[in-house]
């Protein structure tokens, strides 16, 4: 169940992992991917203690919270305020700077239990609870900070789950974007984020967390391998997977992945492909 000197969470067994990945691959290719199911499968692939009963319990908790929302409270602002009062005020869902340092902040089952998490995972809670209650809700992937939107573009209301669901003014949203990019927001940034984009961004956060902690390259590798199951994934993920395999001492498998990536990019960047094949050769040499 993982290396004894590492803190939890520990990964599931190989058999359990294979089953979870099969289910994940099936869900991401479905006509309407289920965001909460995908996030919980990510959680189970990262945390071997999350079994199917735990996944069902997390889904039931989302259902229960949705049942506490008022019936059709009104327009977009009324929905945003109702969800804020329920999740932010009554149940205490919010985030703090320290949550960026915790892997649990990217795992939906942990966020439901701790009432704490990264902006995107707290937004998943907002989205799934509000959606179950019939709200016109969607994710908004602002640069560097994920929020939720209620209602059509003409009278859209944005809320920030990381701040307990605080309803944002136009200036608030602009400041978030300027702070992340140095430029004012483009209208396209406010478009609803499809479920698979949300899932990819969750996995990106996990990869970034693991990249800053070389001893947890296992987490990074699992996140990359799940991301590779998503249709239209970036080809460069294969390069990252190869590097992680080499880092973890799987030199042959890593070299093969690097060579495969070099084959993919050779047509557009022959020099880069040559350099990556040299990396693969270096990896194979480590076996001697």
TrEMBL record:
Residues 1-14 have a biased composition (Pro residues). It comes from the Bacteria. This is Transglutaminase-like domain-containing protein. It comes from Streptomyces nogalater. Residues 1-22 are annotated as: Disordered. Belongs to the UPF0162 family. Residues 58-204 form the Protein SirB1 N-terminal domain.
């Amino acid at each position: 169940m993982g290396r004894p000197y590492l803190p939890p969470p520990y990964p599931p067994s190989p058999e359990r992992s294979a089953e979870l990945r099969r289910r994940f691959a099936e869900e991401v290719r479905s006509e309407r991917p289920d965001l909460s199911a995908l996030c919980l499968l990510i959680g189970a692939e990262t945390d071997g203690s999350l079994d199917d009963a735990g996944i069902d319990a997390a889904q039931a908790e989302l259902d229960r919270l949705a049942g506490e929302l008022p019936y059709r409270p009104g327009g977009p602002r009324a929905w945003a305020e109702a969800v804020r009062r329920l999740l932010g005020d009554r149940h205490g869902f919010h985030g703090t700077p320290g949550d960026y340092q915790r892997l649990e902040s990217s795992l939906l089952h942990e966020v439901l239990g701790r009432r704490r998490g990264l902006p995107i995972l707290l937004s998943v809670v907002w989205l799934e609870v509000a959606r179950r209650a019939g709200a016109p809700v969607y994710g908004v992937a602002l640069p560097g900070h994920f929020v939720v939107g209620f209602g059509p573009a003409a009278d859209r209301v944005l809320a920030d789950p990381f701040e307990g669901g605080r309803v944002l003014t136009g200036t608030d949203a602009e400041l978030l974007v300027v702070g992340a990019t140095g430029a004012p927001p483009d209208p396209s940034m406010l478009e609803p984020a499809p479920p698979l984009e949300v899932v990819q961004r969750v996995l990106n956060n996990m990869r970034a967390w693991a990249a800053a902690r070389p001893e947890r390259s296992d987490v990074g590798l699992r996140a990359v391998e799940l991301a590779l199951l998503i249709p239209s994934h970036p080809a460069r993920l294969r390069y990252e997977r190869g590097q992680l395999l080499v880092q973890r001492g799987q030199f042959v498998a890593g070299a093969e992945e690097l060579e495969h990536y070099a084959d993919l990019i050779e047509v557009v960047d022959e020099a880069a492909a040559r350099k990556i094949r040299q990396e693969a050769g270096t990896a194979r040499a480590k076996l001697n």
